[in-house]
Amino acid sequence: MEHASRAPWTGLVLSGGGARGAYEAGVIRYLRDEMPPRVRAHMRFEVICGTSIGAVNSCFLAAYNHIPEAQGRILAETWQRLRIDSIYKVGWQEIFNLPKFLLGSRGRGELDEKAGPGRLGGLLNTSPLEQLVRRDIRWDNISANLASGDLKALALNATHIRSGNTHVFVQLASGTLPPWSTDPRIEAHQVEIGPNHALASAAIPWLFPAVEIEGETYCDGALKLNTPISPALRLGADRLLLIGLQSEGQHNESTQKKAERIDRYPSAAFLLGKILNALMLDQTEYDLKRLERFNHLLDIQKESFGPAFRTAFDQRMTTVRGAPYRKIDTLLIRPSEDIAQIAGRHLRIGSIVARAGGLVGSLLRRMGDMSEGQPTDLLSYLLFDGEFATDLIRLGMHDADAQRQKIIDFFST
Questions:
Q1: Which residue has the higher pLDDT, 118 or 297?
Q2: Can you count the helices (H) and strands (E) in the chain?
Q3: Which one of 98, 138, 139, 284 is most buried, by most CB atoms within 10 A?
Q4: Do the Cβ atoms of 395 and 337 come closer than 8 Å?
């Protein structure tokens, strides 16, 4: 249906990618701090949708949606305060438990002491990172902002391990869920979103423990739906601002083949990084091209057949798919530089490795030794450290500035 009775809602869509998520903080920082005041006055995010680390950032932004002028600064500073030595707990006990993580435990409670209640499997003990999510996000503010109208909807994606389907956790300002996707592999659940929903969405397979919610186990939502465009549209967004975490160069197959020719059997770390890239493959460009085609078709309908045909068409589409087609303005901001290359530079500098120390530092150093000039994809997902985050925030601000006029035009329509 058309939303002529209200101003257009903006949907903010945040992608997944582990520690790469600091880039999203940089884009938001630029939008909130560097745009002209007349643009900032109209820069609202009524619908916020995220996957994986994008889900964590989404919850943070939703909790501060009532003070938009502070959102970017607070989110960026949170990322910059991270220190890798206080993020991961990897000691001899974790090494001793490695067979259980790899082969499975005999019961749900066997790993709870180390991974935490409701946390299952995972090679890394990420309890310090999880405590940061629980502590630093003002969870009560999300419901308060929905009640006050400062936010209309928040949605997070997670992969339901038992079925392999994507579950979309949705919290609304009022009412019940709108008609959802006819795809049986995507289910929407209306809930009160809390830390476990965000942690479930961000639970990178193999690396981070899975999360149990109401007796069901979940892992990273980016496996099936890394850039949640459809949920944002279902929840009423009329235009979409998307922040991706893969550079444009990663979509150029010939460039990738030339840059990453493999002359020997690669390391497990190299392979795992490439597997994560494949699992979190960004479908944004494909989805945006589909939206462009639908926008064009709707323009042709209006010009050729008039409003009566459009009304009948909308009614028919609502019956068939649960919602009509609408014209959607979109803007995509994504890295101009391969984030894996930035991670590699920080590994060569060595300060993050030295700060990590112990087994974590040795593991990072070993990954660097095995990469031998190849992009360190796996590290770019794992370097939760303010030094790395600061560079990604700077890159996000730079890339947003490169589209400054497009951003002004986007929020002026």
A1: 297
A2: 20, 10
A3: 284
A4: yes
